Amino acid sequence: MGYEALDFYEVDSLLSDEERMVRDMVRDWVDEEVIPKIENACREGVFPDEWRVALGEMGVLGAPLKGYECPGLSYTAYGVICRELERGDSGLRSFASVQGSLAMYPIWDFGSEEQKNYYLPKMASGEWIGCFGLTEPDYGSNPGDMITKAEEVGDNYILNGAKMWITNGTIADLAIVWAKLDGVIRGFIVEKNDPGFSAPEMKGKHSLKASVTSELVFQDCKIPKNRILPGVKGLRGPFSCLNNARFGISWGAVGAAQACFHSAKDYAMSRIQFDHPIASYQLVQNKLSWMLREITKAQLLAYHLGQKKDSGDWIPEHISLAKMNNVDIALEIARVARDIHGANGILDEYPVMRHMANLESVKTYEGTHDIHNLILGRYITGIQSFTRGI
Amino acid sequence: MNIAVLLKQVPDTTAKINVSNGKVDENSVSKWSMSPYDEYALESGLQMKEATGGVLIAIACGPERNKKMLTDAAAVGADTLIHISVDGILDSIQVQNFLAAVIKNNEVDVVLCGKQAADTNAGSTGPGVAEILDAACVTMVSEVSFIENKFISVRPSISGTEKVSTNGLSVFTFDKGVSELRRPNVRGIMMAKKKVIETIKPENLGLEGSDSERVLLKAQNSPPEKEPGQIFEGVGEIPTIISKLRNEANVI
Amino acid sequence: MKFTIIAETNGDLLHQTTYQLIGAISNIGSKSTVICPNGKGSSEASKIKGVEKIISVNGDCFDLFDGSAWASAINSVCEGTVIISASPNGREIGSIIAAKRNIPIIQDVTGISPGITVTRPIYSGKATETLEISGESVITLRPNAFENADIGNEAPISVVDQTSDLRVAIIEAINKASERLDVTEADIIISGGRGMGSVDNFSHLESIADSLDAAVGASRAVVDEWGMPHRMQVGQTGKTVSPSLYIAVGISGAIQHLAGMRSSKYIVAINKDPDAPIFTIADYGIVASWEEALPILKSELMKL
Asked: Which single residue of A234, A361, B138, C187 has CA 20 to 30 Å from C77?
């Protein structure tokens, strides 16, 4: 009774051999090393360090990046990796998204040659963990008004401010921090032992419990001048990172939805009420059939977006649509799956409530569902509706 | 050292087997995998390769889909991939002759395979190939190493295990090994995809590759339905249950 | 059609399986020649109905197990279709004899009829197949799948001396303490649940497990509450198992537990509550306490 991913339209048959092999590698690892340990990790609220080691050994971190000892896979392969990881847990996928798309990618795209050579090999191997500091306590959907700032003092930059909701923060060896230098948003690499930097963990989450979430605090944090990312200015920097992370999420959500479908179907087939499996009742079949329909559509969106990303023929709005839709349906599927499981659905014997709680975060982070709606609204009408007034 | 590992592709042990029209429907098998004991043979072969600086030759006999399994073997470190391409329903001795011929052509020093494959669970291939090659054969080993020109292997004995040695060309069939199986990684996968699989047809070996004339497949069927359970009050029927489990179910 | 049966022995006696091999061939209306490696069990075999003659093959090569040496010695006197037990040694000897004679081998057969047509399980019992064999072959028969032949015969015994070279040398015997099998690998699992009362009582399950070469499993309740190792846990959040035989003792059978073991081939449940859900999937249910049932279970198993 191994895991058989729902793939009604055999979308995976469109993958290359290499992408399929990567899929199987990650899927087997998730089966053997993640599923048996995830509930415990959630209860204890830790991200098991052995997962970091394994992801590095498998060589999947920073999947689509080329050179500097990075994997050099396709974006589609990166998507497949995210999907398989998130079938295990959204927290695990978050770890990989942050490491690859939010920490490695900006160094790879905007970093100096020296920075790339120094950081990327260590990050691809999982030896160093990265995090990404954009969101602030008072600036979530509106990062452009961030207050964290950097000042040039002699041979250093001095950072002041605070970031919040930072995945991997406390366990990270380095942070990509976005701060205003002379009023312009710039990226800085802050290492964990830099003076004036701390990353206390945020506790009490009901969601993404196996993932570390932190604040980043900068109190006259002093970093050498060669830690600025030379290649980008303004919001384009963090947004290009987010585009890649959101792309991964649009695949990852499919994995969470597949896991919920799998569990709901198994449960419905074996749960007997009124002398028959509940799967034989029309109301349950309706739910399962709806899940199949939505998962199939989400798979097609993710796959086609992967192809567009690999060919370079994409716009950020394409990613917004997929992220928004796929997380939305995954969350709804998790809720319906929980319902099919009846009371058992609230137990950690089954993955559904964990996925459901996780997906509440996924719906909100990396651009909330509503913000993606507004991005598409602006695309359709040409009128931005994020802010009021002029 | 040339290390040959014989690999068989089987329906994944977790896959459902569907029978239709008196035949197992292979198209409905959701996942084909390397037979589990062969994985231990492969792992042991990789370790021997690393210890001796040898070459690992992975050999599979079967239809086209076997190529995927060979590429999987390359992703963890197999150097040479040989696919004996056959589609027919072959008997044991046909397969053994094909494998032995390929082994001979490759000047192999040691042959490793699983103790049995997860489809027929027969266990004929290793000993049969050993006989054709006039090689020593040790079955159900958990580890093999090459020390001072001898192969030292560990196999079960009545009282536990025993270490045995063999000289010259030897065939070892693996039970569950003592080592953890290694996982592939992205680098291995990217190398593997560049590896060329050498495809050989039985005709190239001077052998007959068509359906066996000696063993004809008449039918494949779903297993007989289990009888509904019987519940007994008290312990009086335990002897009957034990005897049924032994004599009818053959499980003890 | 001539049949040669290679006897399986147990010390100096015949193994029960040998009676079954002879019985299977008698049932399809043929007499058989029985080969006794190193002469063991030859006089016993001569008394079994259906045996035409006994050949004792004697030689040094039988001092230790080397399938290839055994097969060489035995093969010299084999004729026709060769029948041997599908035990590990039988499978190996059979495979080598088949290769020597350049004939096919069909292993693990559970049914045989004249012609010869055989059936065997495939895919670990998820299907069966029927094969028609023409010409000579080697066939291994699954132990306990056939009826024993009766006693009542006086077949002649001849002795043949054979030498063949050993290719395998034993360099060290390692006695190992019985090591508990893992639930995912065992062919038989005996599992306990809350009904066992306490962790200490698992020793009763362990002693039965030892006699069956079985693994000991546990329900989630006892793993969580009594601190038993998680690797023993069978069920939704534990291991999914499908052994040939699963014995559930004091396990009520929550749906989560059933999810992990329902694909077992045979399920025996012992529980004092007749309404325990485990009985709904059991092949054999025993409504009794473990204290009453386990001693009897054990003594019956010891008789085998």
From this structure: B138
Cα gap C194→C199, rounded to integer Å:
9
Instruction: Return the CATH fold of A11-124.
Output: Butyryl-Coa Dehydrogenase, subunit A; domain 1 (1.10.540)
Class of domain C3-161: alpha beta
Distance in angstroms (rounded) separating the CA atoms of residues C150 and C281 = 37
CB contacts, 8 Å: C293 with chain B: 235, 238
How long is chain C? 304
Known catalytic membership, residue A294:
no
What architecture does CATH give domain C188-303?
3-Layer(aba) Sandwich (3.40)
Q: The dihedral of CA C35, C38, C44, C47: what is its sign?
A: positive
For C158-175, the DSSP string reads EEEE------EEEEEEEE
Which residue of the set A19, A294, A360, A366 is catalytic? A366
* Residue pointed to by tokens 């002693």: C207
Strand order in the sheet with C138-141: C105-109, C138-141, C81-85, C3-6, C32-37, C51-58, C157-161
Contact with chain B for residue C302, Cβ under 8 A: no
Tokens of B27: 């198209």
Distance between CA atoms of residues A15 and A307, nearest Å: 10
Question: In which element (H, E) is residue A156 found?
Answer: strand A156-167
Spell out the residues 6+ positions from residue A299 whose beta carbon is closer than 8 angstroms to its own.
Answer: A7, A9, A11, A254
Beta-strand relationship, B110-114 and B170-174 = parallel
Cβ-Cβ contacts under 8 Å, A1 against chain B: 14
Is residue A302 within 8 Å of A314, Cβ to Cβ?
no
Instruction: Report pTM.
Output: 0.90
Q: Which of A1, A39, A344 sits opposite C255 (nearest CB)?
A: A344
Chain center to CA of B10: 9
Lowest mean pLDDT among A365-374, B70-79, C31-40, C254-263: C254-263
Chain B residues within an 8 Å CB radius of C185: 176
Q: Could you tell me the fold of the domain covering A236-381? A: Butyryl-CoA Dehydrogenase, subunit A; domain 3 (1.20.140)
Contact A31, A2 (CB under 8 A): yes
pLDDT digits (tens, 9 = 90+) for A82-141: 999 999 999 999 999 999 999 999 999 999 999 999 999 999 999 999 999 999 999 999
Under a CB-based contact definition with an 8 Å cutoff, are residues A152 and A176 in contact?
no
Domain extent at residue B140: 2-205
Distances (CA, A) of A233 to A152, A188, A236, B157: 16, 11, 7, 71
Q: Does C293 touch chain B (CB under 8 A)?
A: yes
User: How would you write the pLDDT of chain C (304 residues) with one tens digit per residue?
Assistant: 899 999 999 888 999 899 999 999 999 999 999 999 999 999 999 999 999 999 999 998 898 888 999 999 999 999 999 999 999 999 999 999 999 999 999 999 999 999 899 999 998 888 999 999 999 999 999 988 899 999 999 999 999 998 888 889 999 988 765 567 888 888 899 999 999 999 999 999 999 998 888 999 999 999 988 988 888 999 888 888 888 999 999 999 998 899 889 888 899 999 999 999 999 999 999 999 999 999 999 999 888 7
Segments of chain C assigned E as strands: 3-6, 9-10, 13-14, 32-37, 51-58, 81-85, 105-109, 111-113, 117-122, 127-133, 138-141, 157-161, 168-175, 188-192, 215-218, 245-249, 266-271, 284-287
Give the model confidence (pLDDT) of B105-130 as tens digits.
999 999 999 999 999 999 999 999 99
Dist CA C50 CA C281 (whole Å): 42
Prediction ipTM score:
0.91
C258 touches chain A (CB under 8 A): yes
Helix, coil or strand: residue A30: helix
Kindly list the distances between the CA atom of residue B242 and the CA atoms of A152, B250, C125, in Å, as whole numbers in the listed order. Answer: 84, 10, 21
C168/B136 touch (CB, cutoff 8 Å), yes or no: yes
- B186/A57 touch (CB, cutoff 8 Å), yes or no: no
